[in-house]
Input
Amino acid sequence: MEFPDESFQEIVEGKTKLLVPKKSLTDKVPPKKPAFFNPKARLNRDFSIIAYAAFLNNFQAPKIFLEGLSGIGARGLRVANELDVDKVVINDLNPTALKMAEYSAKLNKLENVEFSEKEVCRFLSQYSKKGERGSIVDIDPFGSPAAFFDCGIRATMHGGILSTAATDLQVLNGLFQEACKRKYGGIPVRAEYGNEIAIRLILGCLRVVAARLGVTIIPLFVESDMHYYRTFVKILNRPDQQNNLGYIVHCKNCRHRKISLETQQTCELCKLKINLAGPLWIGKIFEKDFIQKMLLEISNLEIDKNCEKTLNKCLAESEMPGTYFTIDEIASKMKASPPKLENAISNLQKNNFLASVTSLNPTGFRTNANIDEIIKIFQSIQ
Output
């Protein structure tokens, strides 16, 4: 326990003590050396803890958590300390990060944690045989997670969860379309709901890799915050028979958008040329039952109070149509001041349309009304 010097500091996150580099708490961009830790990603780790708690609650198989790119091990250590798991394996190529993780494990008196210093796919390949796979596999890289989808799926047991994070937002949001096509097999459209397109591109890529392996993915929960997108999917060792890959048809002229199995050339509302995002995931991105289970876990955990607000939004939108609009986007098209979000949603509902908030944008809403119908209703609010 003599490892730290004045360049390190002990903090508490959730219920877990962590040894972190002091500069990661003070520098605007957390340094990668001596080891990477991002304090601003606490909310992201909180959501992971809630999701994993909800999953593990009724899980009958061995509860094994595999963390492929752990940094100082913050997420894995919290899983080991705050949740009911049999074993946590923390892997990273940085020996200093692993040394810090070991120190933190001792601070918390954890005996269910093992450490590994391997390239992530070599690490995960150790757990790819039946009977040795993880019940939860977590991959949190710098940039794109696409290179790790294959080994991540192979290391996740039937009925287990694979969770990955993406931080290559410029690629996924349409700034570098060719790079996105290379990495994820689809192209984005730059739009107000770009984070949803990005998440669906990630899930679409996962779906393609899983299908090649004869595996089904079921999205349970997705999250968009700051500099990252995170997806949580259940892995089932059976071929996927669903038509869940397609396109988002987006018209930059009239702002009409819809999810479609087929490509289209012209907008059905204004008849002008449309843009296509995809191929991407067109199925649900939230599983209602799983979100409800996450909400039930909140009282047992020490997490940010904003998590509950976000999850209630996820619950509201879990069975809503794909793609959302924003209040500002509609107001801009109308050249009018935006109505209150609650008024917009209630007026859509009064006119017999489905409508809800979305967790992906504070001024966003989901509805089955098209852009012309939305504008007509918004004009009646003014």
